[in-house]
Amino acid sequence: MSALGSIEPETGSGARTTTSVPTTADGVALWKIATASRALDVNSRYAYVLWCRDFAATSIVARLDDRVVGFVTGYLRPERPDTLFVWQVAVDEAARGRRAAATMLDDLVARVGVPYLETTVTDDNAASLAMFSGLAERTGAPMERTALFGPAELGAEHDPEFLYRIGPMHLNDRR
């Protein structure tokens, strides 16, 4: 497991947070962080372990010392292999306020190296919208929004999901 990036330490703290490729041993930690977020649609423990096995190359975790404190799960779209689809982003309370989500996203985009990123976000998720807008700005890329899934697909109890497409991203001349 190799460290990819480094996240800003807390003031006065010697703790170091790094990013790395997830392993199957990290799957349960992802599930716990997703559950604790109270914002994500939580998948089964098995799904997170399987994700860490089958989609490790397109996902990333943040570690505070040796403990997983955040993750971004993604995959390359089969119909658009130049597009990374980001499925979920979550940060444990221990790493909030340290730019962990933005650092993980930047490191993942750089590692995967494709020019486009897609994700879905509900209108009430201001933190995600700000994070993805920041990525678009840092990579000099436009961000487009279109309706994707509404009540017909997700049911009346789920807010509509809007597709955000960022790209082409300029990864070699990042601001």
UniProtKB/TrEMBL annotation:
Keywords: Acyltransferase, Transferase. GO terms for molecular function: diaminobutyrate acetyltransferase activity. Residues 17-174 form the N-acetyltransferase domain. Pathway: Amine and polyamine biosynthesis; ectoine biosynthesis; L-ectoine from L-aspartate 4-semialdehyde: step 2/3. Residues 1-20 are annotated as: Disordered. Its EC number is 2.3.1.178. InterPro entries: Acyl_CoA_acyltransferase, Ectoine_EctA, GNAT_dom. Coiled coil: none annotated. One of its GO terms (biological process) is ectoine biosynthetic process. It holds the Pfam family Acetyltransf_1. Belongs to the acetyltransferase family. EctA subfamily. This is L-2,4-diaminobutyric acid acetyltransferase. It comes from Pseudonocardia hydrocarbonoxydans. The gene is ectA.
